[in-house]
Design brief:
Blueprint lengths: L41 H13 L1 E8 L6 H9 L23 E9 L2 E9 L14 H18 L15 E6 L8 H10 L5 E5 L7 H17 L14 H12 L3 E2 L6 E4 L2 E8 L2 E4 L20 H25 L2
Parallel strand pairs: 1-3, 1-4, 4-5, 5-6
Antiparallel strand pairs: 2-3, 7-8, 8-9
Length: about 325
């Protein structure tokens, strides 16, 4: 209104607001109706056939003190001998003075689907009097796998399928003390949860009563919340409402109480993995001492692909950004 220039007036008639035309099924992409068979649903079959031919990789790490049943639990989880070989009968297994990482790779096939499974054990973790910085070899190993994948990814001529040795899940075994988490447990999960998916479990849960187990779980959940430790499944990555509802039910039962067993027994006409006691047989997966859901999502129950996606899109992406920023600095 304060301009001194004459106001320019358009000779065109004022624009009349167009009437809103409701979208019909024919005009809406979401409600478009087909007049014949196109074959879109065949894409799923094509993806399935291609995946079955190529197979997929899954890498898991188990961390905990000696004698907590790490190897037995992995054998129970995948129902096969996939953990490292135990010492021979009559020979005492020497505890290493430092944390040494041992990896064993197997190819598991089920209904035509092949999975290359790599189990990394950490003997010597937490077994010494002075456990200061005992997590450093583990952090170094995880970052080395990220670095190996990054080097393959930034090549000018890349492979069609980059070998994936990154750790997709780290199962941390908590001793069944029935008390609070130790400073070693808290410090390890605080450091490792920033670079890998950490799944805490209570080892040898059959040594606790139902009341002791429930109280121990509650104390662990309070410790994790007090120290702001985010374990898998993380709340920040829940996007779909259905996934959030499922993950909320899983988070209520964290840490999982596990009972490992590598021997088969006959129960009601079926052969199951379990531990035989004078009171009966404790099944490794269906037991009141290890209530569902056990960490079955580590073997493909529902979250195996989600573990791989979070590893690639979150943890590996953070490492990649940090490394590229370091290389671009003058």
């Amino acid at each position: 209104g304060s301009s001194l220039e004459p106001e320019e007036r358009s000779m065109e008639p004022p624009a009349v607001p167009e009437e809103e035309v409701p979208l019909t099924a024919a005009s809406s992409p979401a409600g478009c109706q087909l007049f014949g068979y196109v074959g879109i649903e065949a894409v799923l079959d094509q993806m399935k056939i291609k995946t079955m031919k190529m197979g997929f990789e899954f890498n898991i790490m188990v961390v905990g003190q000696s004698g907590l049943g790490k190897s037995t639990m992995v054998n129970t989880l995948f129902k096969s001998k996939v953990s490292r070989k135990a010492s021979q009968a009559g020979q005492e297994e020497r505890i290493p003075k430092t944390v040494q990482l041992q990896s064993v790779t197997h190819v598991i096939e089920e209904k035509g689907v092949k999975m290359k499974l790599t189990v990394t054990d950490t003997p010597g973790f937490g077994d010494q009097i002075n456990n200061e910085n005992c997590w450093d070899p583990i952090i170094k190993y995880i970052n080395e796998q990220y670095e190996r994948y990054l080097r393959e990814e930034i090549l000018i001529t890349r492979k069609r399928k980059i070998p994936d040795t990154r750790v997709h899940g780290c199962v941390y075994f908590v001793p069944p003390t029935g008390h609070w988490l130790r400073p070693l447990d808290l410090e390890f999960m605080r450091r490792l949860s920033k670079i890998v998916n950490v799944v805490p479990v209570i080892a040898k849960a059959d040594t606790l009563t139902l009341e002791e187990r429930a109280e121990f779980k509650q104390r662990i959940q309070e410790d994790l919340k007090t120290h702001a430790i985010s374990v898998y499944p993380q709340e920040d990555f829940d996007q779909d409402p259905d996934d959030r509802a499922l993950n909320d039910r899983i988070r209520e039962k964290i840490p999982f109480a596990v009972v490992g067993a590598d021997q088969e027994h006959q129960v009601n006409g079926k052969r199951v993995l379990g531990r035989k006691t004078k009171w009966g047989i404790i099944e490794g997966e269906r037991s009141p001492l290890a209530p569902p859901p056990p960490p079955w999502y580590l073997r493909g129950g529902s979250h195996l692909q989600d573990l791989k996606d979070i590893t690639h899109n979150v943890h590996y992406e953070s490492y990649r950004v940090r490394r590229l920023n370091e290389s671009n600095r003058p």
